[in-house]
Amino acid sequence: MSDPERIFLSPPHMSGRERDLVGEVFDSNFIAPAGPMITRFENEFCALTGHKSAAALSSGTGAMDIALRMLGVTTGDEVWVANLTFIGGVSPILYRGAVPRFLDVAANTWTLDPDLLKNELGKADKEGRLPKVVIPVDLYGQSCDLDRIVTACDAYDIPVVVDAAESVGARYKDRHAGKGARMAVYSFNGNKIITTAGGGMLASDDEELIARARYLSQQARQPVPHYEHTETGYNYRMPSLCAAVGVGQLEVLAERVARRREIFDTYAQAFADLEGVDMMPEADYGTANRWLSVLTLDPETVAKSPMEVIAAAEKNNIECRPVWKPMHEQPVFNTAAHGATSVSDRLYATGLCLPSGSSMRAEDQERVIRQIISTLTA
Predict the structure, then answer these.
(1) Pairing of strands 351-354, 293-297
(2) Is CATH 3.40.50.620 the right assignment for the domain spanning 253-377?
(3) Which positions ≥6 away from 127 have C-beta within 8 Å?
(4) φ and ψ at 66, to 5 degrees?
(5) Among positive and negative, which fits the CA dihedral 369, 375, 377, 378?
(6) For the whole model, what pTM was predicted?
(7) Phi/psi of residue 30, each to 5°?
(8) Mean of the pLDDT values across residues 163-187?
(9) How far apart are CA 246 and CA 196, in angstroms?
């Protein structure tokens, strides 16, 4: 008997239009990281998010790297970042020779705790060690409480670069997630809610910053006929083929968000009667895109750990994952400064990410639900 078809955590979901748009790129012969399709993708992304300007880049990590450089982050500077996150938004701190400091998240949002941030900034000001930049993170498609974070940082003239890699299509109050920071970084990696196969976007209302980001992303080439360089840049520009996929994906983003939220709600209803099982909360200030459906298992009530559930699901060809391992526990950062980490530690110990792809069939989700329930009640 053959194994059941694999159910992936968050696979790409094409609409069909992407193929035609890629064909347009071939017809135009703008295959390299230049041409009208990149401009179109940037413009349509700005129309969606409300940002005044955006630069399409090769990855969200590259976007963060450029953002920190433009803000003058250099050797020895402290950069504060949410502890519960993926390493892609943190590594650029080390690229700049700077020092990360990890701050815990709030239990009701799983994103950077604004009260903790305000208190820590006050202490740092007295000690003369304010951070150069603060990086809050939108987690699993939920926006951080950006206004409170920006207000706390504005008191000390500290710029905020929000890692919105996971929140394309999410809302914060009356606007798109990420808008309101000095800059916002988005990701279109293959597992995100929409994808360009690989790629990212740096967006801002500061059009001069984004113009400089484009310049730096193209090897910092001076606007002269020959190749002239007065500073070093990067090869971070997004290829036109990827931008074409992105244009097609933007067309169906609303549908993808609606489907992911539907998947989350179906899980929530299915597990409602399981004692000790709680779904990730939704902040009262926004609407999450529910990129991933995530739950927690209370160890005082539930006999199985997330890792045991993951192992049992894998035997039946279902991909589940733990919550992000906090940055302060990563070996590469084990000497980095951090304060209390109780919320991040608890979420990592109890959190479980479920298959959430917008192309997942109802029968596939029912199979996941049966698997989870059978494991937890065995």
Answers:
(1) antiparallel
(2) no
(3) none
(4) -65, -40
(5) positive
(6) 0.96
(7) -90, 70
(8) 98
(9) 5
Report the alpha-carbon distance of residue 269 to residue 150 in Å, rounded.
Answer: 36
User: Quick one: average pLDDT of 122-148?
Assistant: 98
Residue where the block lists tokens 């698997």: 371
Contacts of residue 110, defined as CB under 8 A and 6 or more positions apart, other chains included, come to: 84, 139, 140, 142, 280, 281, 343, 347
pLDDT > 70: percent of the chain: 99
Spatial separation of the C-alpha atoms in residues 278 and 178, rounded to whole Å:
27
Q: What is the Cα–Cα distance from 111 to 104, expressed in whole angstroms? A: 8
Share of the chain above pLDDT 90, in %: 93
From CA 249, how far away is CA 199, in angstroms rounded? 13
Give the DSSP H or E segment for 362: helix 362-377
Distances in Å between the alpha carbon of 314 and those of 27, 106, 291, 303, 318? 43, 31, 21, 19, 5
Q: Are 282 and 142 in contact (CB under 8 A)?
A: yes
Max Cα separation, the chain?
A: 71
CATH of the domain spanning 17-251: 3.40.640.10
Task: For 198-308, list the strands marked E by DSSP.
Answer: 200-204, 277-279, 286-287, 293-297
Domain boundaries, the chain: 17-251, 253-377
CA atoms within 13 A on the CB side of 182: 22
- Name the amino acid, one letter, at 350: T
Contact 112, 103 (CB under 8 A): yes
- Residue 146 vs residues 32, 153, 285, 353: alpha-carbon distances, Å: 36, 10, 10, 24
pLDDT tens digit string along 236-293? 999 999 999 999 999 999 999 999 999 999 999 999 999 999 999 999 999 999 999 9
For the stretch 311-338, pLDDT in tens is 999 999 999 999 999 999 999 998 788 8
